[in-house]
């Protein structure tokens, strides 16, 4: 692969997925894209780049982008965000939504589905608390390939062993040969659809909870700011945003502020950009909530 080829691939991936590759990631590109090239009947990445530049290249571009996207996920990943979901987010929303009894959740980088299914399991475990409620979970990802796996709800022994408590496995999965399939009652709680975080969010409607974990780390600062600002527009003003352990809104946007003593959890900032950089923190023990924003629900 020539420097010219590598530069073209870097620009293509940034434009189509937001993925930023440093100058020293040749090995990663080669390991992930050589199989794509060979599948297309090409011998090397120079041939792949030439094909990508040609007419009718869109299907191949999609394959390249999906091959370069990191889709690692596992059940109850990092544990803390799901503790926040059960102990902080849901109690606050149940109190705030007692009249409508409707909650919308968005998993914005769902990968192979473990995160939205984990949330669905958490909701199922709440039992009577949510009787008569409608809770919708929208799970999106750039990759249609991983979404197909997510929809099937079928996971290997290794995948169900990563983070999933044994009791949950027995309760919500059925063994199918050497694999495990999540129960239809859990699968039916999640709607999967392809979506690119670089696109406009408006048509998705408004959400009470957004999980956008471990995806911003692959973007440059400009893209992170743009994504966070768009997330703020679709998050209800008394809603929540959950980010990954290595991600933050601090120094990027004033549209969200940290929830006190809840690592990785953020709330929309009613002061918006006027409070940017002011270090405002929302305390749930004395929440000064702004009125709920209206949106497509």
Describe the structure.
The structure is a single chain. Helices cover 40% and strands 17% of the residues. With 297 residues, the protein is α/β, with parallel strands linked by helices. The protein folds into 2 domains: 3-68, Orthogonal Bundle (Chemotaxis Receptor Methyltransferase Cher, domain 1), CATH 1.10.155.10; 80-275, 3-Layer(aba) Sandwich (Rossmann fold). The protein is globular, with a radius of gyration of 20 Å.
Summarize the structure.
With 297 residues, the chain is α/β, with parallel strands linked by helices. It has 11 helices and 10 strands.
Topology:
Elements: H1 3-17, H2 26-39, H3 45-53, H4 58-68, H5 80-96, E1 102-107, H6 114-126, E2 134-141, H7 144-152, E3 154-156, H8 157-161, H9 166-172, E4 173-176, E5 179-182, H10 184-187, E6 190-194, E7 207-211, H11 221-234, E8 235-242, E9 256-258, E10 265-268
Parallel strand pairs: 1-2, 1-7, 2-6, 7-8
Antiparallel strand pairs: 3-5, 4-5, 8-10, 9-10
What are the main properties of this structure?
single chain; 297 residues; alpha/beta; Chemotaxis Receptor Methyltransferase Cher, domain 1; Rossmann fold; 2 domains; seven-stranded mixed beta sheet; three-stranded antiparallel beta sheet; globular; disordered C terminus
CATH topology of the largest domain: Rossmann fold
Integer average pLDDT: 86
Going by CATH, the homologous superfamily of the largest domain would be Vaccinia Virus protein VP39
Strand line-up across the major sheet: 6-2-1-7-8-10-9
The count of domains is 2
Which residues sit in consecutive blocks of at least 5 with pLDDT less than 50?
273-279, 285-297
List how many beta strands DSSP finds. 10
N to C succession of SSEs: HHHHHEHEHEHHEEHEEHEEE
Q: Termini distance?
A: 48 Å
Which oligomerization state do the chains in this entry correspond to? single chain
């Amino acid at each position: 692969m020539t420097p010219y080829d590598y530069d073209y691939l870097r620009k293509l991936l940034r434009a189509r997925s937001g993925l930023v590759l440093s100058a020293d990631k040749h090995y990663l590109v080669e390991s992930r894209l050589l199989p794509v090239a060979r599948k297309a009947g090409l011998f090397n990445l120079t041939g792949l780049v030439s094909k990508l530049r040609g007419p009718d290249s869109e299907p191949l571009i999609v394959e390249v982008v999906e091959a370069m996207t990191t889709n690692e996920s596992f059940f109850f990943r990092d544990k803390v965000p799901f503790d926040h979901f059960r102990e902080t987010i849901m109690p606050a929303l149940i109190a705030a939504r007692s009249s409508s009894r409707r909650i919308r959740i968005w998993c914005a980088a769902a990968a192979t589905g473990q995160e939205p299914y984990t949330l669905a399991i958490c909701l199922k475990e709440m039992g009577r608390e949510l009787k008569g409620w409608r809770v919708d979970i929208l799970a999106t990802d750039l990759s249609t390939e991983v979404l197909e796996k997510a929809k099937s709800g079928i996971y290997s022994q290794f995948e169900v062993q990563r983070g999933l408590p044994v009791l949950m496995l027995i309760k919500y999965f059925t063994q199918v040969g050497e694999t495990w399939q999540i129960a239809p009652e859990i699968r039916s709680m999640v709607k999967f659809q392809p979506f690119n975080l670089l696109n406009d969010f408006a048509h998705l409607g408004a959400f009470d909870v957004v999980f956008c974990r471990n995806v911003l780390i692959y973007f440059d600062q400009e893209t992170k700011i743009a994504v966070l600002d768009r997330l703020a527009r679709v998050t209800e003003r008394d809603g929540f945003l959950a980010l990954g352990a290595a991600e933050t809104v601090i120094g990027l946007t004033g549209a969200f502020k940290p929830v006190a003593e809840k690592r990785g959890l953020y709330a929309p900032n009613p002061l918006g950009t006027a409070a940017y950089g002011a270090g405002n923190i929302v305390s749930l023990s004395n929440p000064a909530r702004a009125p709920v924003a209206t949106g497509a629900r």
